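Supplementary Note 2. Why include the ligand at all?

Several targets in our set were suspected to adopt different conformations when bound, so apo predictions alone were not considered sufficient. For every target with a known small-molecule partner we therefore ran a joint prediction. The input for phosphoenolpyruvate is given below.
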Amino acid sequence: MSTFLSNPLAPDTKLGSARPWSTSQNGCELVNPPQTAEALAMIIITRPDATEEQIEHIVARIHDWGLRAEVSRGEMRVVIGVIGPEDKVREKPLGAFPGVESVTPVLKPYKLVAYEFRGMPSKVKVGNVPVGGKEVVLMAGPCSVENEDQIIAIAQSIGKAGAKILRGGAFKPRTSPYSFQGLGKAGLQLLAEARRETGLPIITEVMDTKDLDLVCEYADCLQVGARNMQNFSLLREVGRTRLPVMLKRGMAASIKDLLMSAEYILSEGNFNVLLCERGIRTFETMTRNTLDLNAVPVLKAETHLPVVVDPTHGIGIRQFVPAMALAAVAAGADSIMIEVHNAPELAKSDGEQCLLPGEFADLVGRIRGVAEAIGREL
Ligand code: PEP
Ligand code: MN
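The joint prediction is reproduced in token form.
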């Protein structure tokens, strides 16, 4: 049975940037009222023989009470997550419905993000590509979108090699204000053109709430970068869209911090979140960051959200990226994000860590081998 989250995507009626999978709603539309600070989450586990009518009855009653219900359908049983103000949730006789096996509160501080809230892994659809299933999904592209020839050539080569999602930055968070800051809107338009040419959905960073409407017009998935992981107003705003969000771990953030930041997004109604491990700062100076692969099995146990690993920023040195990509797949990552550039010496950002298209194609074959060895596929 499907475990897809609801994921209507943004329209492009006003754009020439046709998404083949587009629907009729705007990606930036507000979908759910925010939860209160005192929200409580309860998990209703239904009996294996619970009928569809019983489940519908439970959900209808929860809605009548003004509470929110998230239904997750597994192979064996249905799990209903209930969320609402603590005093309201506590007083309801959730265990009294026919078809209910057990009712338990989520005790973790991250409630909607906690694995038990759904009781099964979530799949998040980026465009038409599900992330979080058996398949290990490859995302690739340049750090920055630089010009038409560059992005089209890279998109074509990574698509041919087996990548399913094109990633490129139009708004770039740079350590120095004098470094290339990205092409902004023109970069988004070039990404849309690359999508038209290749059919690949696009993921791109939004740095600021003031750019969100614009980025939503083009992106199939919003990236919130490491430096913005605790920009709580941005998290809330992306949580009010219907677009998937890839949230990157801050370079000085704990795994719990990452989960709590994701909770901000889900608490606004957007369950379409991917968590990305991209390396943390340590005392090590031989590499750009230290890719914390511990985070992969820990996140897979703690949350139902899919886990992406970015070995490119994680180690920051081209020569070592493939080894860490393979290790990330072995550790259980649902998706791998790799920077690829066709002329790294000319790259306007992160040229030293991106793979050449041929190196990426070679790596894809090796990733397939590791994926198959652990019972997954590419
Ligand atoms: C990027 O993905 O190019 C980027 C800037 O990443 P991070 O936010 O992880 O540094
Ligand atoms: Mn980069």
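Residues 143, 169, 173, 225-227, 248, 278, 313 surround phosphoenolpyruvate (ligand 1) (CB under 6 Å). The chain has a mean pLDDT of 91. Comparable summaries for the other entries are listed in the accompanying table.
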